[in-house]
Amino acid sequence: MVVNNPRLINLLSEEQKADLASMEKQFAHHLEYTIGKNRYNLKNEDIYKALGHTIRDFLIDRLNFTQERYREQNPKKVFYFSLEFLMGRTLMNALINLGLYETIQEMLRGIGFDLTDVLEFETDAGLGNGGLGRLAACFLDSMATLNVPGFGYGIRYDYGIFNQIIANGSQLEMPDHWDADGVPYEVVRSDISFSVGFFGHTETRVSGKGKIQHDWVPDETVLASAHDYPIPGFNTSTVNYLRLWAAKSSEEFNLDYFNHGDYMKAVQDKSISENISKVLYPNDTTEQGKVLRLKQQYFMVCASLQDILIQFREFKYNLKDLPDFIAIQLNDTHPSIGIAELMRIFLDNEEMDWEPAWEIVTKVFSYTNHTVLPEALESWRVELFEKLLPRHLEIIYEINYRFLTEVRNKGILTESEIQQVSIIEEGNEKRVRMANLAVIGSYRVNGVAALHSDLIQKTIFHAFTKVFPEKFNNKTNGITPRRWLLQSNPNLANLISKKIGNEFTTDLYRLKDLEKFVDDADFQNDWKQVKFTAKNELARIIKSETGITIDPSSLIDVQIKRFHEYKRQLLNILRVIALYRRIKENPNAEVTPRTVVFGGKAAPGYYMAKLIIKLINNVAWVVNRDKDVAERLKVVFIPNYRVSLAEKIIPGSNLSEQISTAGTEASGTSNMKFMLNGALTIGTLDGANVEILEEVGAENIYIFGLHTEEVFRMKEAGYNPTNFIHQNEDLHRILLMIRENFFSMGEPGVFSPIYDSLFYTDNYLLMADFTSYDETQNRVAQDFRDETTWTKKSILNVARSGKFSSDRTIREYAKEIWKVPLLDTIPPQTIYKLPQN
Questions:
Q1: Is 175 within a domain?
Q2: Is 227 labeled as catalytic in the residue annotation?
């Protein structure tokens, strides 16, 4: 098995040729001895698995090298705690970051296989729900690329975010057993496991020093077993890791039950214990689901903190030095129980006094907030919390008592504001507010876009800003250009590199150099060809996934994201109905052909979001079968939206829908992905859209709707949606079509909740924004007809997207929050080349 491509061989140094020969030998070895295949019965699946094991070997070499380097230099390290890591597919990303893509491509061609087909065999690691988990994945990539000693900690769920199928227009959920065929790049650390306790009670004793000490005696113990996923940096030898914990029973089965003939009872405890890492986001509408979710949160932080402290103690430092060597970032409130857990370790295990323990804890943690919606802030019933984690509730009560006493003594807050900052929410049902614990126990609190960071200080955390004005800051989100340009859109990446070189891969601001070519007719034509190729590929995928044939030359208008009422997919489909009705009533009118594409999942228990999905599918069924609108309007819902699908949809898109109600979206990152791939944005002044507008200029983005302050004022004044419905005859007739079952002839009344919601409450002000949205969409349609001007806007969107790299975000975290170094780059052994299609 030898690469016979002279062009490739001539590019390689003697050392690289030796590396290639070594890799070929490893690949052949894994194919025969790990996978158990020979040359006569090979399939893409076999090649993928053998290749995965080969790259795993390569990654482990660099991982060990990186760890040895950290051991020698002992820099401050970052540990990113997140209950979600939406990694998607790993192998292609690793090949690109390692500079091995073209080498492997040629190697496989030499044996009659195509790398593109092989990579399609990999299943997405869907261990996250949406933007939160995808952000975490981008951050890990950037930390490794910037040589930050940074590591992820989370849970190795057996089942990720569910697989979505559409039946009769409705979402159905199917299990996502993402690792059913094995995970070749996974490194199982069977020697790293920790005990995690639940339930039980606390006991007091007098220590040898005469101090009263507390001991937690759990009733249930589970083992957390480590699984590592190497994270290679781009064009550097650094390989960090994501460590995910799998739950294992502390006993295989209860021998006493077994000996008495009750085998099922003997293994029942094992099954219950291992449920902790069984599924992402268990349904928490039941008491059992709530207990399991809180168990997951504590399970992850308890194991991770034990792991971190063992690593720290290798250097025999005093615990008071912990903040000099350790920074822990809490990605949302899910891991915030870690603050109480670290206090428990210091107080109970290390027998430290409260004040020095609290000083250390509050210098280690920092907290990223991801919501401005008060109802989305996580809280737990005190009764449930006390049952599951009795000692931690005692510690939280003490944290709260000391904090409120200090605040009262300083006279900073009113009594009403003191109630707002209390960790314990009083009332008929006492609750533990995890966001308040995170703010009080962290040394920095950040939002994820400029508007969002400003809003959380003015609204949900306003009282806290009077106590901790120095804590709050902004870190606008970003995306990794390796995944979201090099991997997802190699044709565009190659076109860009031919004009401005490859430096943009690690310095996205270098894309600014494209502006000098914006009026170059040849470059415009090349740009249009790249986009049309991507649109043709998207049309092929849509046909394959849905059976719907679309016109690739149409305006491809895309909204792909998690379904939630505040994201307003409903506003989009209402406008589609308006367009459909106008074409029907005036079939000779000039209409810009448009394909409206939706994708996304609704939480299984979120009734209204699932009903909106059904409405979209029902509208699509009517529109796509109507010959009067054929070739002018198509509606597509692509099922089972996931990272690998987004990588195919985004490059083929013309218009990016970012239309949340102003003041509700924390940031958004799909807006950045579309921008980087040359789509134009239609959106409200919400989240990171505000900063995209600042970067790209008002003439290169389509902004509509109420501003945040106007939304707040309208709601305070007593918003009445019927005022807007009666002012807009078009809107009134659209709602009648829904009410009168035009899109649900076989299921009369099924969409009544949508009609009632819009007509009587309209919590997210769709009726107030509809006219502005409609008029702006008309302007989009008109502008799209001017191909040259649209292409210029597309080029400028890419050229001005530099700010939205996760590399920039991580540099800011490293410098301003974590205080960690960017270590010197160790050049990789291989030459980096952009992947070729």
A1: yes
A2: no
